[in-house]
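pasting for ref. prot 1 ->
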Amino acid sequence: MKEIVRAIRSGHWPSLLAAWLHFGVSFMVWLLVGALGIMISEDFGLTATQMGLLVTVPLLSGALLRIPVGMCSDRFGPKPVGLALLAVELVAVCWGWLGATSYLHILGVGLGLGAAGASFAVAMPLASRAYPPAHRGLAMGVAASANGGVVVVAFFAPRLVETAGWHGVFGLMAVPILLTLPLFALLVRQDIGWSAGGASLRWGDETARLLKNPLTYWLCAAYAVTFGGFEGLASFLPIFFHYQYGVDTVMAGTLTAACGLAGSAIRPFGGHAADRLGGFAMLAVVFPVLVVLMIAVGFLPVLHWVTPLAVTAALAMGFGNGAVFQIVSDRYPKEVGTVSGLIGAAGALGGFVLPVSLGVLKDATGTYQSGFLVFAALACAAWIGTLFFTRRRNRAS
């Protein structure tokens, strides 16, 4: 632990704190619809497919925004871009509070909440460039651990609904956003996170160059499984626990919060381990473990078994997240904003696919089992890719 503390002190920790705060609050906002999904679906009488779409619209919107936001973060710096995202989030939650009176309206709110998902492409470059190369995996893991915001929103949102209603919960989310705006402006040093070299490149040329590298595609796939799996589960687990096991909304939120806490708390340790042992080596272990866990969850065991399995799966995903971004900071030090946007978009798309497939396949087959087995197959494909690039890297060295 002392070694981790020394590593954190080696960089500009106020910027790291700002990155963590921005991503944490934004992650709460981003997954708010998922935390309120049961209550909203009961109000509007939604099918399983409609519920799956409802909780994934913010994920898809965030995925699409991460690429341009990552480019803007490289060109203009994370400070102005991060403040702009918080402003959009504020507008979206106010709409959910005061104006979302139909299913179409709440889908529109979800689109606006995608700005919160794009926070990733601000927080990660900021954390990376605030630290020396030897500790960037840890720094990015710390910043990424702020996805623990899912713990707060999953635990408290169902409880607050009982007194404020789900519209009121949207309004309450304006408070942490308003508190974060001045803190982010004060803590972030203007020169950190802005790349003068990146500003001289045309965005399209830079992206095209990155897309010529096969490693970029594998990192996108790896993050789609690790982070996409985590956010997809965090969005859909309240619905899964409620409708599959008959637990009430508060208990469903509590169980989801436990999964979110596990997946977020482990991320700094995953990044630190990857700094020491290498991201490829870590992922070669994470993915087969995840395959086994998803197959086990797919068999839909009783609640007291499925809960620890889901928590352990979240741990594996969180550990894998830190490993992926150790590789990013090591291989793309000058384009970390743009690469973070590309990879983060793939991760968010992975989060979109999981809840939609669970909802659609539940309507088609009458069970959630097939959705979890599909995700296990994707994790297996990512494992095969990891072995391929590990062997290729060993040959090159």
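and prot 2 ->
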Amino acid sequence: MKEILILLLIVLGTCKFPKKFEFGVSTAAFQIEGAWLADNKSLSIWDNLAHSGLVVANSTDPDIGDDSYNKYLEDIALMKDYGIKNYRMSIAWTRIVPNGTNGSRVNQKGIDHYKKLFRDLTRAGITPYVTLYHNDMPAYLYIQGTGYTDPDFIEDFKYYADVCFKEFGDLVKYWFTFNEPWVLAVLDEYTPEEVMTKPYDIGHALLLAHAHTVKLYREKYQNQQKGKIGWVFNAEMYFPKDVNKKEDVEAAERALMFQLDWFCEPMFSGDYPQKMKEIINADGKGRMKSFTEAEKNLLKGSMDFYALNHYFTWLAEPARKTGAGFDYDRNVNLTFDSNWNQTDMEWSIVPEGLHRLIMYIHGKWLNNTNMELFITENGAAIKNESDINSIKIDKARIEYLHGYLGAVEEAIIKGVNITKYFVWSLLDNFEWGSGFSKKFGIVRVELDKNAKRIAKGSMKWYSELIKDLL
């Protein structure tokens, strides 16, 4: 009883959100679905990586995992029971167009599955927010070509997206093309030759694939289906290591430019940040491609809302490295303040970082517009979750969410049009290279054949917060 009273007091101290504000939870198909070969699904690049034995911690694989492909009704029931009315999820490309290529076979069993899922969500009063691509490219595309930089990638992705819009658009009113393009472009293993240009080439391809897909949706579906479309930026926040050093201030600005502005600025102006272009192309090798005038017009305004994933904050100072490639172009050394607490991912817990990031975005791009800002991912991996009693209290995660929601609330009070917030994640899930060792869920999943769900204290706390605004 004491723990419950404490949770309620924390909730009541954070209930200053507008009545129209919406809370939700996020997941991604590959991280929760399991059923890796069910119903004619093909292999994705992450199926191959997970089975390589080289990438994933503890050699855990997602073949069954949370088994949400088969247990999605349990997940819907959980959300309904706890008052969660907004669910961000993704569709597995490999379940819809198994080999991924333009014009190739469409898998009706995959379509039927997601139609049932969307209908059951709607019946339960839960709105789906759907990401088309969350890291799980069909392996065939990567093996047969060059992945994102393949000349056919845009048409391949548009074909898959077109199928989704056609089949699910009457049930889905919020679409995201790509999740975290910066991660897709930067966080990979590159050879010394590739590192010079590959991150920028991938970023370029993703921007154009997004813009062409938005054009397709707007011209062919949006008027009839009345949906909205965008994509999901990710950004940490960067504080100068020494606020009194001009070079540290510039390093923090440069770090954010090389993560957020790189993908955000083209959405508003149609082109890359001028300073970024100057830095990368200073060697005269033209390593950052240029957009044509037609492409600039296609990019500009190609999102109906602003969606942001954020988890932690860095201290920035110049790296003073010599060499070439993304890290040398960015020229930033990143550390944490020793006084900052950290999550089990060893990510800093600095709610002020989210607040400053939101205000930066608002001041640079969203001020004097009506565009909504969604926080589409924010959450914490918490250590030592083997003790069921501590999980039921879940104090550390509640404190994290309480702090970051306070940062969102403060920005709303200052006039930022933030309308939605999604916790990462509904379930403990497959966290890429960390496997199932990092626990982000507000619901625990027992990794056995039954994949039993157990609501954590944070789920109960979140439920009370939502109820207080109804």
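The chain has one domain: 2-468.
The longest helix spans residues 198-225.
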